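Fig. S4 source data, part A: sequence.
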Amino acid sequence: MVKLQGEQIQLFPVNKFFTAACFYLAARDTVQEHRLDGDRMQLYRNRIRAHDITHEVQHLNTESGRRKLDCMAAVHRLEAKKNAKEADVMGLKPTARLIREHQPSEDYSKAEGIANMLSQAITTHHLLYASLGSAEYMEFVLKNPFNVPQTVTIHTDDSELSVITDTEEWRYFKALTKTSTPLEENMFHVEEGAPGPRVYLRPKESVHIPLKYQSFWCNNTIAVQGPSFLPTGKGSQMAKRNLSNIINAKSIKVTFRAEDGKPMAICQVNVEPTPHVVDQTFRLYHPELCFLKKAIRLPPWQDPTAEDPDSWTLNSVRCSDPNIICQTRMLVPGDPQDVYLKVPGSPSPHIKMFFVMVFTDKWMAAPSQIWQVYVHFLERVDISCVTGQRTCQSLVLRGRQAVRKIKCFSSYSNEIEVDPAGVFVLPPAAVQELQLRVQPWQAGSRFLYVNAIDMDQQRLVAAWLLCLNVHRPILSKA
């Protein structure tokens, strides 16, 4: 019996079975804590949040849980010492596991770096200065480095750079560029569905692969006018370059693959744009949201290099906008040809700009003329009037998101008067009525234009196409 502050506590002798049971319970708790710790570590690796942990793990915050954690930590320290000794005996360090875990990524990056270095070793760089519509010719020397014959497949990642497979076209460009390399007929084998043409090479054989770059596409957007437009760039030269380069610079890769699919050689073509010459400019005015159909006549052109002087060459045309239909046809040999344009409509006052390239040679090596076409889509207003009499017509101008200072201009100021004539303020989301007074002096059908200009930004706000049908006056006395 033991007395502690007035209380009597009776001590019993320690039993062997009780001691074994205590050790069994402690071992079981240790195993469970170790399992929970492993589950918690797995949850941490999988980045599961605290609210996803089950209720069995949350009871570790209690007093019994903290006691069990202390026992588990002591067991882990003993096991860590034993593992460290065994690792030293086997010649391994505790950090070997981390090295093994990071070893696959390092091997992958090393393999990727070696592959990039090998790819650069077989890559040949070529620089081209290209212009709109003009074909640039080049030849690449392909050599078979193996001691066995190979069938090489040529693949390009851009359709504007192609392989010349036609023997006559190859001969034409060689004569045009004065290239004195050998020419082999029927060298390429083209199959439908294949990634590119194929060429057969003997062991250690070298051949010249003809390549042609030609682009008909360009940036058809019109630069915003007015003093508020400032091009992005560090200086004036950068701004001028951004405005003048209609064709975007690009890098095209041509891959020559062997029979096993691995690259044998790579030709990387860097295309640098150069400005082109515009021979004629056309400005067409058309009502909004309507298709524009226009025919432009070409004069007959005779090829001076043709053997027959009476033979006429069929001209070819290409358009820089794929959404526009542009074609030409010759009905009777010797008659002038017409270039037919069909342009989809746009809302007013949108302006659509594109280029038309006219070729007079068979293989379209270089355009003989380049036309720049502007199509102004306007809001159509029909007016019927009498010669010499004044007719009034009202137009509606709607405001946008900001306050603007507007002034209206007409194509014929002596026949059209606009009220208000001066500068007026157009509030946001407001409606302004414009009064037109038309007084024509010639009978017939005519087209006049009225434009509303933002005087601060120097931009076109609205445009109207006035279709006048002018009648002769009724004679009262002769």
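Fig. S4 source data, part B ends here. Residues 5 and 388 are 130 Å apart (CA to CA).
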